[in-house]
Amino acid sequence: MGFISNMFKKPDSKKYNTGIALSGGGVRGFAHLGVLKALNEHDIYPEIISGTSAGAIAGVFYADGYSPEESFEIFYNNSLFHFTQVSIPNKGFLSMEKVSKILKKTIRAKTFEELKIPLYVAASNLNDGEIEYFHQGKIIDKVIASASIPVLFKPQIINGKTFVDGGVFDNLPIEPIKNQCEKLIGSHLNPLEKEENLDSIMKIAERTFHLSVGAKLKEKKEVCDLFIEAEELRNYGMLGLDKGREIFEAGYKITQKILKKNSSF
Fold first, then answer.
1. Hey, how many other C-beta atoms are within 10 angstroms of the C-beta on 6?
2. How many CA atoms lie within 13 Å of 161's alpha carbon, on the beta-carbon side?
3. Residue 75: C-alpha distances to residues 81, 108, 244, 246 (Å)
4. β-pairing, 16-22 with 181-187?
5. pTM (two decimals)
6. d(Cα 104, Cα 64) in Å, to the nearest integer?
7. Which of 45, 159, 166, 221 has the lowest CB atom count within 10 Å?
8. CA distance linking residue 103 with residue 89, whole number of Å
9. pLDDT mean for each 10 residues of the chain (265 residues)
10. What's 216's DSSP letter?
């Protein structure tokens, strides 16, 4: 079951101490794992998670009980962010079948209810033109839907509806958890600055997507008690894999730096 954003109402008391929202960003999702590792080393353990696209993938591993380092090894050794399987391009050029197989093999929980940590997965409902935050029922199809960048990947059909990347409507999904936790952390993968190098269709597609999904970032950033974004991530594309450890370390180092400046968090 999915929930539309305007269905969330502020409860009388907040159930969780710390929550984290993980943005989309393709291979830059390795940085989320570095962020989580640094948080854990400071005894900060998110008790509720929401994620879009790469954030949904990183989030489901953490919610399933894997440590950030364990998740990294699974991602890297299985080339999880290396989308090379080409599909017939009637609905998308790339297939998520490989990712789906890896998730089915490694994620121990079969439903959201079985996860060790509550998880919300954001996906964009193209039929109704709305964002939906899934947190009940089967997991894998919702995570795949959340990560299916339009045009590049085939959309996913769930309950007769067509779903694509959650970033189309909400690339930093704070909405489903912001009123459930005392402290909200936002981990964002797509720093936006001037871009000169647009010499390929893939780079143009990435840039267009980043600009479109970043429209409401300023407002979301202001809601977060802690906002984490490594500027150097702009140097990495969304679909490469060879720099996975560097990206992981970028997330780790910026989080360590921010926490040292916010010792009261």
1. 9
2. 19
3. 7, 15, 9, 14
4. parallel
5. 0.85
6. 12
7. 159
8. 24
9. 44 83 91 98 97 96 97 83 48 67 94 98 97 97 92 88 93 96 95 64 63 72 94 76 87 96 77
10. T
